[in-house]
Structure formats: C-alpha cells, structure tokens
Amino acid sequence: MKYIETYITKKFDICNINFHMPKFYKSIKDETKMSYLLLNYMYYKKYNKFINMDNINKDKMGKPIFLNNNLYFNISHSNNYTSCCLATVNVGIDIEEDRIIKETTLKKILNENDKDIEYIKIWNIKEAYSKYLGIGLKLNFSKISINEIKQNVNLINNIYSINNKNLYFSLCYNTKEENIYNNIDFIDSNKLIKFYSLT
Q: Which H or E element spans position 107?
C-alpha cells in the first residue's frame, strides 16, 4: 500500500543517544540527527528493522535519498521543532514557526498572484515545493505562485496552534498519485528517547 508517514517532534537533548549517521555528513547538527532519529523510528515501525545508513546518499542536487530503494524521505527543522516524512512516493516538506518575514526576503518569495496569503505560509508552501522538486533554495520563489504549485502537486498545508503560537507545515507530492494513506502526527520526544533506550 502506498503511504506518506510524517512525524513532528519538539527538539530535545540527544546527547545520550548513540546513532550512526549517513557518511556524507561532515558535521552534524543536533536538529539533523533528530530528523534521522525520527526517520529510523518510522522505518522500524513499518518494516521491523533499522535503516542501513550507508544506503542513504545525496542526489546530484544535494537532496538526501535512499539508494536502490523505492522509498523516499524528507526532513525539515524550525527553531523548536523537527519533522521527517517517510513515503512510497516523492515528497517535500517544510515546517515553520510563526515569525516576521523581512522585507528583503519578501521580495524574493512573493509572486504578484500571491494575494491575501500570510507571508510565512507562502514561504512554507514554496519551500516544501522546492524540496519536492529536489532543488531546495535554488527555486526562484517569486517566479511561481501558490496557485501554480497547487496545479503541479498535491499540497497539504496545516497550521497547528501550540501554546498560542502557530506552527506551519506543508507537504507536496505528485498529483498523479491516488489512494495514498497519509498520516501527519506529533510524537512526544520522551517516546523517542524511550524507544532508542530499549533497542
């Protein structure tokens, strides 16, 4: 069965978790490690085994991918949260906490057709789309509108209110895909820590 599984967690102290990372990382930020902890957790829940991290590499555009596998994944971070998506179809995700977008950044992301949409939401959707394409910030955000993105991909855009602050999450995947089980959920960091302490 085709699926898209996504978890979001609040960042936590990972110093006591010993975890092998893909070889291409020369220096590893804690938030990146957290994303891969989430990825491995999801993979284990689906397939009852851990990922061989040596089977993860980057494609020619720098997007992390599984080698010789029909699975896809994508990761994203904000100040206080990290997220990861595991899927049987190509995906791109982005997570953003509410913040003020600078005027110089607005000029880079706004398209003349992006009317009456929150600026942070525009950034969130366009970054998820660029990650779906596998080109990251190489996409000229101002050259494409949110409506054009909606015509090109299936878009899920959620806003979660946590402690009176908004957390924006966007996910893009191929419009040709049908009958996909799609789950987006929050996971408590203590559950992850306990999982890794028991395995």
A: helix 103-109
Cβ(130)–Cβ(138) below 8 Å? yes
pLDDT in tens, 156-191: 999 999 989 999 999 999 877 678 899 999 999 999
Q: Using one digit for the tens of pLDDT, what is the confidence trace for 108-130?
A: 899 999 988 999 999 999 999 99
Taking phi over 0 as left and psi of -120 to 50 as alpha, with beta for the rest, 127 belongs to alpha
Entry pTM: 0.93
Contacts 24+ apart (CB under 8 A), 71-76: 73/39, 74/131, 74/132, 75/32, 75/35, 75/36, 75/38, 75/39, 76/35, 76/127, 76/128, 76/131
Please enumerate in sequence order all residues whose Cβ is within 8 A of that of 117, keeping only pairs 6 or more positions apart, or say none.
Answer: 146
